[in-house]
Amino acid sequence: MTAARVSAAKADRSGDKVTRRLVPPENSEMQFAETTAWWALDVSAARPVIEAISRGDGPTHWVDALLAGVTIADIDENNLHFLGPAGGRARMIGQPFTDFCPPESWQVGAEFILAAVADYPPGASRSRPITSIAFRDGWAEVSTDEAHPDIVFIAVGGTVADDRSFWAVRASEERYRSLIHHLPGALLQIDSRRMTAIFDKLRDEGVTDIAPYLEGHPDLVDHSRQIVQVTDANRDALRLFGASRPEDLIGAVDFLFAESADTAKRVITAHFEGKRTHAERTKVCSFDGRIRDVEMVVTYPTPPERVDVTLISLEDITDRLRTEAQLRQLQADYTRATRISMLGELATSIAHEVNQPLSAIATNAETSLRWLARAEPNLAKVHQLTTRIAESARHASDIVQRIRNMAARRPPERVELDLNEVVEEALQFVRHEIETRSIELSVRRGRRLPTVLADRVQLQQVIVNLLLNGVQAQTGQQGLIDVSTFAALDGSVQCTIHDGGPGIANEDLGRVFGSFFSTKDEGIGIGLAICQSIITAHGGTIVAANHPRGGAIFRFALPAAGKR
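Request: output the structure for the sequence above.
Response:
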């Protein structure tokens, strides 16, 4: 809508009242009645402040200082209807402008007065679109009159949906603001309307995917952080940023994205794509330099809502993340403790496994010495024996490395793994236990299994623990361990371990994965709990049941790589 134009400078006195004639905008397409309202403001008492500002040495809070010297000389009927209190014009003439002008319009009013009286800053615009709860498509203009040098005329207008007074609308607005200010959680009210013109221009240029465009035009992100404005903030937002009053946060949103420029890109992208909300975890920096982790939720307006109101909620999760990190560390310590405990249980098997390559090394070395001691050494035979020694040494080294990996303190590393390979590696730890107890081992490997994204050592720990539980559950002569892997119809990769023991008591089936639950006298009951936490952390599931043919069966499922 084109801004209304104040008629040629023309004013007269009707008693002590200044009047002004306004001309409606041309070529407007209005769905509602076009209305204009104007102020005649006496700025004589504000001239010292205006002069100081124009010299560049004005007060810090110059808007408050300037408007403190501005009073109402007159208003028109429309303005009176929107803003007038009981008693009408008589109660407004001579009173401070700020007593009746909405606070959100003070900045605009002060800038208009500077432009009209002092042409400061040089060439400053004397008309602009405005946000107004009284008008839609609001605009404002300022002018002066040579006959009345201390009077500044400010005209506002737009389309009006109804004829309620400003005070009725203001009461509704105040109830809304009171609700926002007292809601728990940090809330910022944002005016992002200036992005609309930018988005329209980009679409005209053929931009349909703004994310890559922003990567190539970082200056647009920086510009957006300056033109999108915070217009209000509630008490929890002040507390989060360490501010003392809402005015400290009102202005460009740049401070909100100081710690995460990429967050700004994603917020802009969601707005461009017309999404209703955007949520993510990010970081913000408070005014006293504290870095806080927050859950940010941006709610964009959609018609017929007020398009100047975008809401951003911020939940401080710094302490929660710190607690979660401590919990993860504690869980990692427990996981490592169970691995070491498990290795202790397998000490005999480990010693036997390491002893095999060491015995082979000793035997082959002694034989080599005998061949070398002959009058004519058989070098071909010595070469063959030396090769076997090297192979046995590598085998022993691999065993030691596998044990060290199991016992080491290190962060989990997720890589694509073949579950069959992990099962075979885990079996190396318990194979001696199985053989010495004369337990029949059956391994059925699924063919062409999809890979899983997992930590090798943690997955080995789960399988070894389940195998060891199965071995220890069997005391009879006809022991059985049946291991199988397969790709399930739901896209997961699964492993089952079935033992030939007595099974799980029905009353214990729901507790086997609970912390500190154990059916063994010497058990501490964290092995299966750790197994469950590892599988759950990998996005999988683990269950226990009794097999129809006897014994217990444990089954865990992991999502195939790429399908998490």
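The longest strand covers residues 148-159.
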